[in-house]
């Protein structure tokens, strides 16, 4: 079932996000920006956490999470340990939510209009997976460029 595939991909990439954040030799570099790199790895990490907790946790898992998207890009110097803890919490939210989804849930229209038109829940979950992978790649590149 698609839910198991998506759950596996989200787990793989969220665990890789933890590895990326843990791999910075200099913790302060998590928050670096340089020239045309306008988002730090820390802010991208917070953005991914907020995104998944909103669209998977709050909307599908009914967790009650309330997103503050501007803070995802304005907060600075959140300790690495706190980022890792937030990623671990997000993994639990994603797993709990996917464990409760049915095939009918995937075929249903996603409860929010996100891209100015209706879409199925399965379409949006695939989008969220690719969104995670996109920013994960940016964080990897950020680390290799700026963690010197």
Low-confidence stretches: none
Overall, the morphology is elongated
Helix content percent band = 55-70%
- Strand % is under 5%
Instruction: Spell out the helices and strands N to C.
Output: HHHHHH
Task: Calculate the terminal CA-CA distance, rounded to whole Å.
Answer: 43 Å
The biggest beta sheet reads:
none
Structural class estimated from helices and strands? mainly alpha
List keywords for this structure.
single chain; mainly alpha; 148 residues
Brief account:
This protein has 148 residues and is an all-alpha fold.
Describe this structure in words.
The radius of gyration is 16 Å and the shape is elongated. By secondary structure, the protein is an all-alpha fold. Helix 2 (41-61) runs parallel beside helix 4 and helix 2 (41-61) packs antiparallel against helix 6. The protein contains 6 helices and no strands.
Write the SSE topology.
Blueprint (H helix, E strand, L loop, with lengths): L1 H21 L18 H21 L7 H6 L5 H21 L2 H5 L13 H26 L2
Helix pairs in contact: 1-4, 1-6, 2-4, 2-6
